[in-house]
User: Which sequence fits this backbone?
């Protein structure tokens, strides 16, 4: 367990990055492997900058890991939700390209996701989920969160396009549920990875979101994209439905709600 004095007060910083010879996996400022890891009140940062490409602030391979009132700050590939079951509550995540990525079963609840100002030739993508097999019970669930522009992006918002996600792997799965989506998100919502790759096999869903960027009428027309209208379908990606949270989160002391909220 890591317990800090609060976001911005307790900070762990590094600058490993792909341009300087590290792999994405090894670039993490902090990497968590052991099961049941908990962090509270800490900023994890990789300050390599937008020109250094992949530069991870935190990587978690920890099953049943939970992060409460933490901040994750970088540019490309900020938060590597690598694998297994993970929960993030009241956290802030800042980045540019694919800045929440990996193949965990992960729920973000009551979090703030902030797109930053990228380099002039770049665009912002909030997620790049890496599910490789349709039998894997993995995915990124964004539940009751805020999806907005960071302070450095706001003045130049019209100069950059921003998307909810793109498919890193063939069965990529990402869901936005009852979240506020700001005006920064492009009306099409989602971005291709490479041509038609994964557009038939991915699962991208939006359920009862709000805000100026939440209008789904102009969204992509991919076989794997859907506007979710069923609470039963959406409930598969809640803390209880996706993580069986009642079996382990109570013992962490971190607040959570089990259902759709």
Assistant:
């Amino acid at each position: 367990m890591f317990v800090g004095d609060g976001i911005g007060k307790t900070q762990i910083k590094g600058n490993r990055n792909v341009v300087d010879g590290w792999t994405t996996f090894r670039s993490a400022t902090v990497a968590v492997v052991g099961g049941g890891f908990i962090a509270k009140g800490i900023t994890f940062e990789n300050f390599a900058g937008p020109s250094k490409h992949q530069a991870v602030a935190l990587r978690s391979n920890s099953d049943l890991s939970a992060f409460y009132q933490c901040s994750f700050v970088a540019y490309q590939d900020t938060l590597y939700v690598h694998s297994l079951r993970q929960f993030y509550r009241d956290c802030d995540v800042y980045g540019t390209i694919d800045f929440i990525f990996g193949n965990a079963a992960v729920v973000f609840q009551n979090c703030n996701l902030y797109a930053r100002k990228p380099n002039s030739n770049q665009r912002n993508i909030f997620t790049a989920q890496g599910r490789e097999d349709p039998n894997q019970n993995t995915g990124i669930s964004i539940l009751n969160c805020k999806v907005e522009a960071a302070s450095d992006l706001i003045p130049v918002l019209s100069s950059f396009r921003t998307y909810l996600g793109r498919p890193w792997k063939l069965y990529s799965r990402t869901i936005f549920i009852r979240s506020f989506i700001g005006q920064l998100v492009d009306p099409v919502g989602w971005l291709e990875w490479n041509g038609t790759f994964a557009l038939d096999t991915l699962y991208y869903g939006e359920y009862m979101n709000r805000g100026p960027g939440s209008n789904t009428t102009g969204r992509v027309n991919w076989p794997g994209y859907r506007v979710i209208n069923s609470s039963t379908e959406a409930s598969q990606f809640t803390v209880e439905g996706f993580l069986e949270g009642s079996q382990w989160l109570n013992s962490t002391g971190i607040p959570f709600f089990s259902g759709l909220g």
The chain has two helices and 22 strands. The longest helix spans residues 239-243. The chain has a mean pLDDT of 98.
